[in-house]
């Protein structure tokens, strides 16, 4: 199976708007067609959920109309050229995964955390947002409608991408008058096909991902366009990704383009504290709890870039990779290597515990998974 990026790039949405049952909103649903030439099943279709709604009160507000759970065949997404998302970047997304269990049931991992993060992002971006319950119900309905696309146990997962955007027209700099929420999904393979593969990072000391008071702490779309230049330059030089520093002192670790970072020294695992400039990762939060349960001491604090040179191990966390060991980091032409080409013991241990919990292979004592029981598994 292809990696998540490759599979996502192959998605071709087709949808048709349908009238809302609620007069204050226009809800519609969509059906995605997967045109992957690599897959013999490319003629099969996946269903996606789309719901549009208008704020009932002037922004910023926190109300939206009920979502429809009816799915419809749809076409390319249609947006007003003056929409808030296209002109102002008023948009948020989330990323989550669903795993198939041996008994055919499907496991979601902490979906309410994604719902809460989207709500806090919506507040920052002056957007109305779904309640936690609405968000989780929409995710469940979309996954169940696409149950045939959840890979068999051990063969990958269903990546779930909820999107919230200002779809209404706005000429000035103001919140959009209408918002659209949609969810699309795609099956993805295991990120690491043959065990954990260490990545090579370069510390970026010129450009910054986020500023105090900015939007680095929420999952808004513009944060990602902003990292493409440094990331592309790093990749062109053979690095896997960029590690950002804080923009004030230019010496404290922040995060990688789409992952949080952890530094291991003995039994102490340190990670940059959440203070508005880094994304509060759900994997980060989970790994902190897993690490504590495994007897490690976890410190959330300012982590100096120089600590990288004293560390035993460094790893990144995120939904896509879960835990990604770092093989080397380059900072101002100084390079430090970890693990001699293989993943460190701590990364390996934490990866193993968390992925087995997410896949339903060990008891979920944390109560983090949500089990969906499709009427017919495949
Ligand atoms: C900037 C950034 N940091 C960290 C993460 C990791 O967050 P999570 O563990 O919730 O996937 C992501 C991925 O969503 C991200 O985009």
From TrEMBL:
Keyword Secreted: no
Catalysed reaction, written as an equation: L-isoleucine + 2-oxoglutarate = (S)-3-methyl-2-oxopentanoate + L-glutamate; L-valine + 2-oxoglutarate = 3-methyl-2-oxobutanoate + L-glutamate; L-leucine + 2-oxoglutarate = 4-methyl-2-oxopentanoate + L-glutamate
EC numbers on record: 2.6.1.42
Gene Ontology biological process terms, A to Z: amino acid biosynthetic process; branched-chain amino acid biosynthetic process
InterPro entries: Aminotrans_IV, Aminotrans_IV_CS, Aminotransferase-like, B_amino_transII, BCAT-like_C, BCAT-like_N, BCAT_family
EC category: transferase
CC cofactor: pyridoxal 5'-phosphate
Keyword Cell wall biogenesis/degradation: no
Keywords: Amino-acid biosynthesis, Aminotransferase, Branched-chain amino acid biosynthesis, Pyridoxal phosphate, Transferase
Any one GO CC term of the record: chloroplast
GO molecular function: branched-chain-amino-acid transaminase activity
Family of the protein in this entry: Belongs to the class-IV pyridoxal-phosphate-dependent aminotransferase family.
Protein name from the UniProt record: Branched-chain-amino-acid aminotransferase
Biological source species: Rubus argutus
């Amino acid at each position: 199976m292809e990696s998540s990026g490759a599979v996502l790039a192959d998605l071709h949405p087709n949808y048709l708007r349908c009238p809302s049952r609620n007069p204050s909103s226009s809800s519609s649903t969509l059906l995605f067609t997967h045109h992957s030439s690599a897959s013999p099943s490319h003629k099969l279709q996946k269903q996606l959920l789309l719901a549009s709604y208008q704020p009932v009160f002037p922004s910023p507000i926190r109300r939206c109309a009920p979502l429809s759970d009816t799915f419809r065949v749809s076409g390319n997404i249609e947006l007003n050229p003056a929409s808030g998302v296209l002109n102002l970047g008023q948009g948020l997304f989330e990323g989550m995964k669903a795993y198939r269990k041996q008994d055919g049931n499907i496991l979601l991992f902490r979906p309410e955390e994604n719902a809460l993060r989207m709500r806090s992002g919506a507040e920052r971006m002056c957007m109305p947002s779904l309640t936690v319950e609405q968000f989780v119900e929409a995710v469940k309905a979309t996954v169940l409608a696409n149950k045939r696309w959840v890979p068999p146990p051990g063969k990958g997962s269903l990546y779930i991408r909820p999107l919230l955007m200002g779809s209404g027209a706005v000429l000035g700099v103001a919140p959009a008058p209408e918002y659209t929420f949609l969810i699309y999904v795609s099956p993805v393979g295991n990120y690491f096909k043959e065990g954990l593969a260490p990545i090579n990072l370069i510390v970026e000391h010129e450009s910054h991902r986020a500023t105090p008071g900015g939007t680095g702490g929420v999952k808004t779309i513009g944060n990602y366009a902003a990292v493409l230049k440094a990331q592309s330059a790093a990749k062109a030089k053979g690095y896997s990704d960029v590690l950002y520093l804080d923009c004030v002192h230019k010496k404290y670790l922040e995060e990688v383009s789409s992952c949080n970072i952890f530094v291991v020294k003995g039994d102490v695992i340190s990670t940059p504290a959440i203070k508005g400039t880094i994304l509060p990762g759900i994997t980060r939060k989970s790994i902190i709890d897993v690490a504590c349960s495994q007897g490690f001491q976890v410190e959330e604090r300012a982590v100096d870039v120089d600590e990288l040179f004293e560390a035993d191990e460094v790893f990144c966390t995120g939904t896509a990779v879960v835990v990604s060991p770092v093989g080397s980091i380059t900072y101002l032409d100084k390079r430090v290597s970890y693990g001699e080409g293989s993943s460190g013991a701590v990364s390996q241990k934490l990866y193993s515990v968390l992925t087995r919990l997410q896949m339903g292979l060990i008891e979920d004592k944390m109560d983090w998974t949500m089990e969906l029981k499709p009427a017919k598994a495949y």
